C-alpha cells in the first residue's frame, strides 16, 4: 500500500510538472505568434520630406480709401511672417490710422518704404485694397 501511495504521489508530481511545462510552451507559443503577427501587419513608412521654404516679398501700401482705418496686417502678424522667412515692405504711415506706428512695424521686422511705387514694384504680392493712381 505504501508503494501505491508513492506511485500516486509521483503521478501527481509528474502531472504538475507536465502542466507547468505545457503552460510554459503555451506562453512561448503566444509570444512567438504575437511577434510573427506584428511583423505581418503593414508598418507605417516614414519618408524624408524636404521642406524647401520659399520666401515672399509682401508689400503693404497705405490705405487711400476715404475713412478707411483698417490695415490688413498688424505688427504681430508681420513678426510671424518675418519669422517664417518672408520679407515685408510697408509704406510709411500705413498703420497710422489703426494706431500702429512705423516703429512698431520696423521692430517686428518689416522694412519701411517711403515711396508708394516701390511698395508695389518691389514686392511679389500686395496686401490691402489700395487703389493707386499712378501718373504716366
Short summary:
By secondary structure, the protein is an alpha/beta fold.
Tell me the fraction of residues in β-strands, as a range: 5-15%
In whole angstroms, how far apart are the ends? 127 Å
Query: What's the order of the H and E elements?
Result: HEHEHEHE
Structural class: alpha/beta
**Global outline:** rod-shaped
Folded structure, characterized:
With 136 residues, the chain is an alpha/beta fold. 46% of the residues lie in helices and 10% in strands. It has helices at 2-40, 75-83, 102-108, 116-122; strands at residues 57-60, 87-91, 111-113, 125-126. It has a 4-stranded parallel beta sheet, sandwiched between helices. α2 (75-83) runs parallel beside α3 (102-108). The longest helix has 39 residues, at 2-40. The radius of gyration is 38 Å and the shape is rod-shaped.
Structural features:
alpha/beta, 4 strands, 136 residues, 4 helices, four-stranded parallel β-sheet, disordered C terminus
What's the structural blueprint in terms of helices and strands?
Elements: H1 2-40, E1 57-60, H2 75-83, E2 87-91, H3 102-108, E3 111-113, H4 116-122, E4 125-126
Parallel strand pairs: 1-2, 1-4, 2-3
